[in-house]
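sanity check this:
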Amino acid sequence: MLHSILNNFCKYKSISNKTNIGFLIIILFGILLSSCEKDSDVENNIFKYNEYSNISSLDPAFSSTLRNIWPVNQIFNGLVQLDKNLEIKGDIASSWTISEDKRTYTFKIRQDVYFHNSELFGKNLTRKVKAKDFEYSFNRLIDNKIASPGFWVFNNVKDFKAINDSIFQIELKKEFDPFLGILSMKYCSVVPHEIVTVLGDKFSKNPIGTGPFKFKKWDENVKLVLSKNKNYFEHDSLGQKLPYLDGIAISFIPDKKSEFMELLSGRLDMVSSPENSIIDQIFDYKGDLNPRFSSNYNLLKSPYLNTEYIGFNIQNNIKKDTLLRYAINSGIDRKKMMQYLRKNIGYPAESGIVPNGLNNSFYLPRYNYDPDLSKKLISIYKSNNDIDEINITIVSDSQYLDILEFIQSELEKIGVQVQIEITPPSILRQGKATGKFDAFRASWIADYPHVENYFSLFYSKNHTPKGPNYTFFRDRNFDELYELIGNKKSISYEKISNDLENIIRRYSPIIPLYYDMSVRIVPKNISGLEANAINQLNLKRVVKKL
């Protein structure tokens, strides 16, 4: 072991002077330390990953963030699911039909799906999932007393009901093409009423679902452990029961550098989206894995339906002025930002809120980098408001500090002074939801693969805390067009998409920064882990060679 470590260190010594040697020394120290320790929790067929921002709930009704969605996806199932190509497949629903008017969906429920064992089910410890369970789960999701952030997913639903034990029906208010994609969201997972009724709020820490893995233990801020559900209903193409793994162990190391060190030491089986501050050590200039790591690790990359942006609370202070926001939008060199800070892992957000992969059906003028125009607009803004200086504060978590420092430098050139406020992710989420911040860094990950999902950020009825409209943007024309976007019978789907983007561009409630890329680094003994455009984590087909 030591000989191998020393050989690796010899490779590190040939690295260019620009490399963070201190970072590499930390890595070496961590590997040496771990080689002398025994991991009491190590089990050969356990998949280990880290969640640096912690997990707040395992209740699917509160699966609003990726940190919660990933473990919830292992524990729960819904009516339908997305495959790696984002195609709708059956989950607990074995099949479904859609009425001629596209408003009534009728689902046939599988008869071989059982909840995880619990003494609260009585002597049998479990029971079969029935259509009534979905009726209960959906009613719970929209219950005001629960206050789920996912209640909005049923805004277009008129009614839902169990016809019998095996037939579940949903009626829409109007045709809505993205609806099956919405049903694939973890919000729409099935939960057992017997368990939820007894546990109440404690269900979020003691979940019972139907998924490939079941809850075992949770030491908050230390480790979450899931074990294999031996009674899981899905099989592979050869008839072998899923999952292949015996369990999952999730740690909560808050530092991304330490997380990567844990991967190198063998304590983790995956690192996802490495921190910006260490990508120079991990990737080459093309965004590929550095040769010193590629012999032992695989890099999984995929376009990711995630748009990173700066949002403005346009109800507050100087952020009300469209002229200022438009000037800021034109004053940031997005291509330069991606080249130097992200190793071109991702794409400059030059076409609006909708990322690459969804916006290829319509064409828009791009956000052009035009600092001269920005300076002119800023000069006009200062004159109109009789001010000499413009100061704004942008709030973010520490992971995006380098991005914000770049924006700070760019905007200083056009006459805007930027203060950066770093806050924990939980405080950032709360501040956005309550309208506390004037300006904030945020991201929007597609809940389902449809452009409508991105435009929902600006629909007036979705303003926070009722939905994801954190900017409090309101425009009657936008709302009218948005309400048509899910209807395939609309005169021109492409035109509507164009018009919606142009309205956002005109008022600039956000500054789109870049469209992200899903990046995962895994040891070569891990197979079956697939990257996908919504960065969902599916572990039921993962194989860990021992």
Remarks:
- The first strand starts at residue 46 and ends at 50.
- Residues 1-37 form one domain.
- The longest helix spans residues 21-35.
